[in-house]
Specification:
mainly alpha
Length: 194
């Protein structure tokens, strides 16, 4: 075996070991700081939910960590616990548990939480289908700066979902999404123009 190949194999092995060690160090550090730093709990929950850094997936632990961070007032974690319940696969999905978490995120000013809650109401997932409530939460999300909420609100008015078709309102909302750099909203806005 040539020296360059041997050196490359040695460096690769060292890099893999360093990555594993840094992953273990990261988990240990996050675990230690979770008691006082809400974002640490949320990040640690992501690690357990997704099996990052060679940590085995532990969904109950992930849910508990998301809940801890959410209860401590981290709206991102509230949205994540909502995602945890609404986006799990098959019979494990529990969208009825997602709605209160998304509401807490939205009430805290986290626009993506409003977007997710609006979609639950729009689709009748875990809550009764209610287009008017969906519009309310899409509007709150858009007002909070969530471009997806603006785009979805534009769709509501462009397609007449629970309201009369209103191209002017659709354009205003698509414009907000486009101004926030969401290309999809820009495309929808362009499609409205004759």
């Amino acid at each position: 075996m040539s020296k360059p190949i041997l050196l490359a194999m040695l460096l690769l092995g060292c890099a893999q070991r360093a990555q594993a060690e840094s992953g273990a160090d990261k988990v240990a550090s996050l675990t230690a700081s979770c008691a006082t730093v809400r974002l640490s709990c949320d990040t640690l929950a992501d690690i357990y939910a997704k099996g990052l850094y060679d940590v085995p997936i532990d969904l109950p632990r992930a849910a508990g960590l998301y809940r801890k961070a959410c209860d401590a007032g981290l709206e991102l974690a509230c949205d994540n616990i909502g995602d945890f319940h609404s986006k799990r696969l098959g019979s494990n999905a529990r969208p009825e548990l997602a709605a209160p978490a998304y509401l807490k995120a939205c009430d805290g000013g986290f626009g993506l939480g409003c977007e997710h809650l609006a979609k639950l109401y729009r689709d009748g997932r875990g809550v009764a289908r209610d287009p008017a409530t969906a519009i309310l939460y899409f509007q709150r999300g858009c007002d909070a700066g969530n471009a997806l909420s603006c785009d979805d609100l534009g769709d509501v008015y462009a397609k007449g979902i629970g309201v009369a078709v209103d191209a002017a309102k659709a354009a205003v909302n698509y414009r907000h999404g486009c101004d926030a750099k969401l290309q999809l909203a820009c495309d929808h806005l362009a499609a409205l123009k004759p």
